[in-house]
Amino acid sequence: MTEKQKHATAYWKENLRYLLICLSIWFLVSYGAGILFKDVLDNIKFIGFPLGFWFAHQGAIYVFIILVFVYVRLMNKLDKKYGFNE
Amino acid sequence: MDVQIWTYILVGISFSIYIGIAIWSKASSTKDFYVAGGGVSPLANGMATAADWMSAASFISMAGLISFMGYDGAVYLMGWTGGYVLLALLLAPYLRKFGKFTVPDFIGDRYYSRTARLVAVICALIVSFTYVAGQMRGVGVVFSRFLEVDVNTGVIIGMIIVLFYAVLGGMKGITYTQVAQYCVLIFAFTVPAIFISIQMTGNPIPQLGFGSTVNDGSGMYLLDKLDGLQSELGFDKYTDGSKSMIDVFAMTLALMVGTAGLPHVIVRFFTVKRVRDARKSAGLALLFIGILYTMAPAVSVFAKTNLIETVSNQPYEDMPQWFSNWEQTGLLKHEDKNGDGLIQYVANKEENELTIDNDIMVLANPEIAQLPNWVIALVAAGGLAAALSTAAGLLLVISSSVSHDLIKKMIKPDISDKGELWIARLSATVAVVVAGYFGINPPGFVAAVVALAFGLAAASFFPAIMLGIFYKKMNKEGAITGMIVGLLLMLFYMLKFKFGIFDGGKEAVAGLESKWWFGISPEGFGSVAMVVNFIVSLVVNKFTKEPPEDVQEIVEHIRIPSGAGEASGH
After folding, report:
1. Predicted interface score ipTM higher than 0.90
2. How many alpha carbons fall within 13 Å on the CB side of residue B441?
3. Which of B85, B213, B297 faces A57 most closely, judged by CB atoms?
């Protein structure tokens, strides 16, 4: 493997790690809090909502938006670190 | 001023803006026509994507649908937003780096095969056509209700407008009209929502309002009140819903993955300059979509509570004007079964006397809440913006599939840029006419198939694209078999359980529910078909030979963001 390829592989590995973390959160707030654990969470009242219902109808969407922007920031930094930015 | 004059004014102004933009942004090359020249800013692309995505269904039908589904409506809320996380993280940046014009371009090149390209073209056409027919119908319905023209005349007016800016401006015209359409539709959705939220709870932010206490001094939470009203009438509690957990899970997944695999959404990310712009504009698109999607469930709760309070056990004679207006359109029906002159709206089908179409919840909501006439007219302009923007985006996919993927790449590769541009315009025109025809004569299956378009996209495109990016050794044999098996499986399940084809037709469908595989509805089955696609692809891949060296190099190349250059067809 050439130096250049090694460099690219290292970049890709870090990217995959970010993806894994982000997608775990994506899964937890929607399928976790909004569906699988909805009934349990509904026992908690959150700003007037049963919590599980809130995640399914509101919270998951807020987390999705934040998540994408966090990923955008992380990747912009990573691009710079590896000199792939333009 | 009455509603109709307001509607003429607002629709007139918004339509002139769209036409003005079309004239200003005429496409002069295929690159302009397919990807708006490739220099759209992330902000503009975010707005355009949001308008492209939010169709008549999101604007008109979704809040109504949720108000009847309660908690189960989460499948749409999470499904149609969560897909953007997948797009932003897994697809958009890499497809942008790849830098071609269409989704079949990617599939065809990555899997070094004309067959793969052809399969992708067919999938793109099936998905887009079913979707666009529903949009034209939406245009017709809005016209007929608010401008009191015939539904068909409404469809034809819509066709002429779309024809004008899609054919003239291509992606360039579409992008900038979509920016304007986003502004119109989000304003039109927000204004009535805020009004009603203040009216019912005193909280001007609808997203918080539906968790607040009711404005009548009782100190009761709005959701508790609605749960109570629903239980009294024999419905499931609003915050609980009635679908099984596995079906909610499967439907959410199918809609998310389907969203990420829809060609008219994916192509929007070919229009920005750099890879980082593709990521950023996906985030902005989700933000702009999220504004409507977090407000919609609030509107559902307000509308449902208002509706029950207005009609339940009230004398038919005392019903307000809007009631008879909507009765005339056939979207609202009352039948006094027990002859007591009161309206019984209950869960028990034998005793229930009121049939309500989902669509009227958003359209009639301002009237039910007695908002000023200009707000009601605004909703009409917003509905039209939503339907037209999505229709235009889909028409572009159809025309580029024909002119670029079929003619240029498969039939006549030596065609000049000018010639290709003319064919693109011609096929856009034909597509508008076909879509208009379906809008005027809607085949009964349109509504059902639109929901299933997501299943088809999930079952066919998503695994092929994802494996193409994340698995360097994925070969054409695996990807093609996977796409075909996924698509056929989805079609089979749909025909069997949605149309009852193998069991004696439509009437048999309800009886087949107990036979659903794993208890998953046809709408959720896309997620199963997707998993099957992944498995088949990987297994076939294992037993066939590796992709050639230069293809593996392409994969390494698209994983690195720098040097994206500009989108090109060569």
Report:
1. yes
2. 3
3. B297
